[in-house]
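REQUEST
  id: r-88c1
  op: predict_structure
  target: Sarcosine oxidase subunit beta
  payload:
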Amino acid sequence: MSEITIIGGGIIGATLAYELAKRGENVIILEKRFIGSGSTFRCGTGIRQQFGDEANIQVMKRSVELWKRYSEEFGFPFKQTGYLFLLYDEKEVEEFKHNIALQNRFGIPTRLITPEEAKEIVPPLNTKDVLAASWNPTDGKADPFKTTIAFAQEAKKLGAEIHEYTEVKDIVMENGEIKGVKTNRGLFRTSIVINATNAWAKLINAMAKVPIKIPIEPYKHQAVITQPLRQGQINPMVISFKHNHAYLTQTAHGGIVGGIGLEYGPTYDLTSTYEFVKEVSKNFIKIVPALKDLLILRTWAGFYAKTPDSNPAIGRIEEINDYYIAAGFSGHGFMMAPAVAEALAELITKGKTKLPLWWYDPYRFEKGELRTKAIQMG
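RESPONSE
  id: r-88c1
  status: 200
  body:
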């Protein structure tokens, strides 16, 4: 049995380690800081099935099933509080009608609702100029800290090793075969490597001398949390593309967490900006006027590891024996993790999977076969 080395200890690495260990594989995670310290612990908590293409809808339907199952098995909170997309013009309404029909085809209960119905779901919502809303009550949110730690702990129970503060320096290759991974803590002998480093994926690809171009670049996105609002006011994730691709929801403690589509990069800088505070305040207040009375408690930044079509690169690099990638999630890694981990574990151990991983083919960029752009906000 070969040692499988996962580089990157975020939610993708943690769920992958669990799925592979569950299948009896020897697995180690190499993480340069601590588990979840990259993009995962900086994410906006949302988990949705409301996409506009068949592949992402199928993956996210399975992911929600797994989020529900594992939250019950492992004891972390996953709440199906829904996603509410606010629609402001006829073109947007028509686009979402198409998306809803596609989602319904796969058994996802999204429906178009009136502004009045939207206000019943989110009482402080400003519905002026809202024509309709896309509502799916089975979408939800989870705590990235508790979930990632839970998957890592469950993987360890099954024999997986997790090496934190272990930075990868190089990948040892001989005649196109992986022999080991050099780190600041010595050499780890292995024959299978999975690049799950997301924003840092291009650096690991360069070490492995990946012969194809996989354009994944880190873009800084920021988030905010406010003072508490009375509980139960904004239970779902509320999305408005009109207001600079804003997303916001209420945390378990009552504060409002969210962000907008202000983007910087490519960059590895994570400094918060005044421009973000100004823009997020202006746009949030238009969606929920009551937020004008709340103080901002904290802002922070994380990475969207973006590809040209906002879909990840997932699969095997044929020219290297055995090198896989699962990165470039463009802001969707947290929500997709359980299904992607299950599918990639099946691919590695059985050579096939039922989920449409072909959509995320790492070779599509060189072939000029970009996918339909995945719906993205924040």
